[in-house]
Write a structure and sequence with these properties.
- The chain is an alpha/beta fold and 257 residues long.
- Helix 2 packs across helix 7 and helix 2 runs parallel beside helix 9.
- The longest helix has 22 residues.
């Protein structure tokens, strides 16, 4: 897997965002109940279309015409456990971009079991915090036998103070964001949906993830300047994300002048 970090400039980020706005991809989100509203609103602000179907008998049909799929196991339940294999089948059969968010995978055997099933699929993006991504090493080996955990076909996105993206198509680091992004429920989970939207229009999943996280992080910085705390920040974050343009990206990425 590539280890050299590629420089990401504002023009490349802006180009991905422009394609999202132009194509308006729909992202089928099987996500946790506490993140559904903010995830849908962030996708709309990003220029994408959310669909939040959860019923086991319709998720495949909803995913069929979507540009990308998000699976987030934050509030896994009996129905979503049954729905996940149907989404995996659509992603596999149609080579459709899929982002997996292994929320709290380290805390329960059920989450580890679901993660093993998801990680059998090739060419997916996995987004989690450092604890979750470390816990997935053993899960990956369990899912794939003796193969090296992140060999050849996974794009791994570890979010934190500095987001690190690594995959077969490249490696990036993103140093944008604000601590208030950790103080509002669902903000982190919404990042996976934005990555999925970018993957729907950009064939390089590492670049797609880096572009989405750069825009989101910069929106977080702007929102923090406009807000007085977590409550007003949540609203300001939607507004800031909707207003991101290339000039803003250049200014915040140190490319002005």
């Amino acid at each position: 897997m590539t280890t050299d970090v590629t420089h990401l400039d504002a023009a490349r980020v802006a180009a991905v965002l422009a394609r999202v706005t132009a194509q308006r991809p729909r992202v089928q989100c099987l996500t946790n109940t506490v993140a559904q509203n903010i995830t849908a609103n962030m996708l709309l602000a990003f220029g994408a279309i959310p669909s939040m179907a959860i019923h086991v008998d319709e998720v495949a049909a909803m995913a069929d015409g979507a540009g990308a799929i998000l699976i987030n196991i934050g509030t896994i339940n009996a129905e979503s456990e049954l729905a996940i294999p149907k989404l995996l089948e659509v992603a596999r059969d149609q080579a459709k971009p899929l982002v997996f968010d292994p929320v709290f995978v380290e805390l329960s055997p059920l989450r580890q079991h679901v993660a093993r099933e998801v990680l059998r699929l090739r060419n997916i993006v996995v987004r989690g915090n450092a604890t979750e991504m470390a816990a997935l090493e053993d899960t990956l080996q369990a899912a794939r036998g003796h193969e090296v955990a992140h060999e050849h076909d996974l794009t791994l996105v570890t979010t934190g103070k500095i987001d690190r993206i690594e995959g077969p198509c490249g490696a990036f680091s993103v140093a944008h964001g604000h601590p208030l992004m950790t103080k509002v429920t669902g903000v982190g989970c919404a990042a996976g949906a934005l990555i999925a939207a970018a993957c729907a229009v950009e064939s390089n999943p590492a670049l797609a993830a880096a572009a989405a996280l750069t825009a989101y992080g910069i929106a977080g910085e702007i929102a923090a300047e406009r807000s007085n705390g977590p409550g007003s920040f949540a609203v300001a974050l939607i507004d800031a994300l909707a207003g991101i343009d290339e000039a803003t990206l250049r200014a915040r990425m140190g490319e002005e002048g």
